[in-house]
Amino acid sequence: MNWSNMDWLLILEATFDTLLMTGISLAFAVLIGLPLGVVLFLTGPRQLMSTPWVYQSLSLLVNVLRSVPFLILLIVMIPLTRVLAGTSLGVAGAIPPLVASAAPFFARLVENALKELDPGVIEASRSMGASSMQTVLMALLPEARTGIVAAIVVTAIMLVGYSAMSGVIGGGGLGDLAVRFGYQRYQTDVMVLTVLILVVMVQVMQVLGDRLVARLNHRRV
Length: 221
Description:
Elements: H1 8-42, H2 52-67, H3 70-76, H4 78-85, H5 90-115, H6 120-127, H7 132-143, H8 145-165, H9 173-183, H10 188-220
Helix pairs in contact: 1-2, 1-5, 1-8, 1-9, 2-5, 4-5, 5-8, 6-7, 8-10, 9-10
């Protein structure tokens, strides 16, 4: 492997694009997935606003989107991606399918985090005359914040991997670099370097996420 001939500026740009895709997609996934997860929890069996048909419909939608392999979702969403982002290539073209994949995944994690709470949290809030919205905002979400932060970390790590996959159809970032140079031009050194950078990204996210979760747990105690 010849590291001296590496185009470091191109690699730096690809790394930035990967972080940009991950960050923007994560933000939208949280904005969509958090309320979706709360609604799934509230409308579930024996919950505060139990509505079977709403829960079953949303649950089916979440399960369908989660079950579609990401590469297939990338291809299927190309027409919609062009409408939403104006292109199906580059960073902008990768974000809609990333969000479509990550939002339902995050929503399910949020629902599970809320299910793990002590039922007494809702009962105590309701006994004090809190409305459903107040119960969610002032009791459920604060109590579940550790689990929600952990879910955000897991989703971010998943998005790093998915953003690399988007390079198969020209999604930009390190994945695109690995495909164009590492695979199509047989530059093994580029392939190895992109893998190393992705591993470092995931490790840093995991370590920082674990520390944040541990700090939140300590504050709760």
